[in-house]
Structures are given as C-alpha cells and as structure tokens.
Amino acid sequence: MALILASAVQASERNSGAGASAATPLVIGETFTLDSTVLGETRRMTVYRPSAWNVPASDPLPVLYMPDGGIGEDFLHVAGLVQVLVGNGGMRPFLLVGIENTERRRDMTGPTDVPEDRKIAPRVGGSAAFRQFLRTELMPQVRQRYATTGESAVIGESLAGLFVVETLLREPDMFDTYIALDPSLWWNRGQLANDAVALLTAHATQGRQLFVASSNEPDIARASARLSAQVSANVPGVRVHYVPMPAETHQTLYHPAALQALRTLFPPTTPAP
Length: 273
Fold this sequence. Notes:
Shape: globular
CATH class: Alpha Beta
Distance between the termini: 34 Å
C-alpha cells in the first residue's frame, strides 16, 4: 500500500479556484501490516526506498530498521535524512523500515527490579519478545517483499536507544550496525551498562559497529560515555563511535545525531559527483 500524507477523500474534494487542479495524495513510500504470532497483534510498517538518480530501482539495498517508525512518530524526518544524504552523496543508499508503536514502553524495555521503572506503563519488559518479532517475522517479510542485501542496521532514541543497546549486548548477530541516541541506560538501575562487557564477550561480535550520541542530560551522558568506553576498550570486535552533543536536549537530539550517524557509519562507496 502506498504511504501517503493526505487522504484521498480530502484530495478529491479540494479545489483552490479557477485553473487549479484538485489536490492529490503525496506518496513517499509504502506501508504494510503484519499479523504477529509472537506479539499477538497486528503491527504496521512504513517503508522508504531512496529514489535518487544513482540508485537503480532493481538494486538490492541494505536495511535500516527503526522502532518509533510510524508516520506520526520519527519516520518522516529520518526518511528525509536518508533521502537528502543519498541524493547528495553523503551516505550509501539504505531501505528504511519503520515499525509503528502499539505499546512502546512494553516493547522497548527489558525486565527491571525497580518499582519506579514499572510505573511508566501498564506493561514493561517486552524487549525479548519484540526482538523475536523482528528476527522471526518482520525481517523475513522484508527480505521477501524487497530486494535487500545481507547488511542491516537499527536506530533508536531514548527507550528505543535502550532497546538498540540491549539488542547489541544480548543478540549482536541481529544487525551489523547499532545506533543508540540518548539511550535510557538508567533502566533497572543501569544494569545493562554494568553487564555490557560480560554480555558482549560471550558472543562473536566481529565487524559490528556501535554509534552512541548523548544530549545535555547529565545521567544519560555519563552512562553513554561509560558504556562506549567500556565496549571500545574491552571488545575489539565492535567499532565504537561516541558523540556527545551537549548543545542538544533530549527532545532535540534525534535529528542532528541521526544525521551525523548516517554520515559516519555509511559513507558512500564512490565519491559524490
């Protein structure tokens, strides 16, 4: 199904005067739903494939997955970054697959022993199930629907950044590149960051990349710096990029940090014309 930014009904009725055509929907990508057995619910995906002159329609592309990826969430501005960076030669082309939320705080968090953590939502601690949904249901569906390479990445901010870090530490073979922006590493008293090296050294991690950016939130910045330093010093199979951005707040970090991450991690294979 085409992903549009105006309803067909509104488009057919709108006319601004003599000589003007009726408005038509603005199509920027596709959307599809997937009935998940793992999660017991229907999930909606939003998909953008860059269409720059240097991206042949038949070429298989690596895939960038993003939680918080609904049309009313972070999909549009990240799709815009992919569009402009691919178009001007700032990054390699990627297929962007956004996953729209249903219960964000359930899906993005792991278990916690902290009573205050459990107050943020009726249900928390569902990250393992969400990963299973990605691995066993969504990723095979994307490979079936689209021409893709074997390379994949995941990007998330705040609680979704926590999910990105947890996925690297617990199932590092799921993606090649992990982008965590202002990750909520305070979850469960910071236990995930405390266990990072032990978790990673239990897996084969050769060739993985981790990009972490932090805003002016002091606790998140300290935890992000600590996590990045620990992984960089102790897990040689993971290439770590840590970018503090103290001029940004937790609310403003995503866009500028994602821009820097995409440029840094996915440089073009050939120089821009």
